[in-house]
Amino acid sequence: MALEDICGFRDAPDSHFEDTAASFHMTDLCYFGLRRLKTSETNRGIPLTFFMPTLPNSAPFHHRPANNSAVVRRPFPLSHGTTTLGFIFQGGVIAAADTRASAGGLVACPAVHKITPIHSHLVVTSSGSGADCMLWERILAREIRLYHLRHRRRLSICGTAKLLSLMLHPFKGTELCVALTLCGWDKEADDTDCAMSGPKLIYVCSDGARLQGDVFSVGSGSPYAYGVLDGGLRWGLSKEEAVSLAREAVFRATHRDAYSGNSVDLFHITAQGWSQRTREDLREEYYRDIERKEKIVEERRRVTALDG
């Protein structure tokens, strides 16, 4: 059957990473130059075989001839920026991001989606090159789905981060620009690095780095977002307070960062899965903020007049 060929039921071993050594079937997109890998207890939970589609007229890295042609570069550099954030609190995980795609001083698109659902309990916030992020999000979603079909269970968040880091590491030092934050909820712990089930927040970037924490903000607007999060984030926040804090952090970042703006997307991940709030236009928040400030100034003037 076609599904058997896709999932590799006939060829791929149906066991965990610590039980056997298996070959990685790679192409020029992600070739490690390794035929067989030794296993260890720290590699639990990662798919043994992940499939990369073969490109026409392509060869692995170590079989490619020397490239004597000139490298074609962009006529001018295009800086890009964004504001994405995620944090853990008692009610789960909050993921938020703006919706502006920038290309230097240009607004390439005002309504992109920088938060992508991978499965029912995992979303990914993306920053970096838009095309690179979209490609690797699709690859990751495909591998997670194939793992689910092979093993009849979802891969853990830590296992997903390991897999993504493993696939991205060969591109370290290239122009690939991908920074993904995995925001999810593990129902069961099946990995040595994730001893407990519950909310998980892991940052993975294009050089293969993998960091786990309770709060992350990535992008050109992250310093402004961190300023708001550091002042208001605590474990005991209610859902409404957490949503308000995330919206405020994205709003302040977009107000100061020219590469971020337009609207805000927000996801809330719990043990029941993720839920998405309706996209909100930050222009309305800007005018509401001005009205709040004007009311504060009027109140101070009134109090000063009464005291005088």
Describe it for me?
The structure is a single chain. The protein contains 6 helices and 13 strands. The chain has helices spanning 2-7, 130-151, 157-168, 222-232, 239-256, 282-307; strands spanning 84-89, 92-98, 101-103, 106-109, 115-119, 122-128, 178-186, 198-205, 210-212, 215-218, 263-270, 273-276, 280-281. A hairpin with a 2-residue loop joins strand 3 (101-103) and strand 4. The strands form 3 sheets. Strands 1, 2, 10, 11, 12 and 13 form a 6-stranded antiparallel sheet that branches. Strands 5-6-7-8-9 form a 5-stranded antiparallel sheet, covered by helices on one side. It is α+β, with helices and mostly antiparallel strands and 308 residues long. Helix 4 (222-232) runs antiparallel to helix 5.
Produce the secondary structure layout.
Blueprint: H1 2-7, E1 84-89, E2 92-98, E3 101-103, E4 106-109, E5 115-119, E6 122-128, H2 130-151, H3 157-168, E7 178-186, E8 198-205, E9 210-212, E10 215-218, H4 222-232, H5 239-256, E11 263-270, E12 273-276, E13 280-281, H6 282-307
Antiparallel strand pairs: 1-2, 1-10, 2-11, 3-4, 5-6, 6-7, 7-8, 8-9, 11-12, 11-13
Helix pairs in contact: 4-5
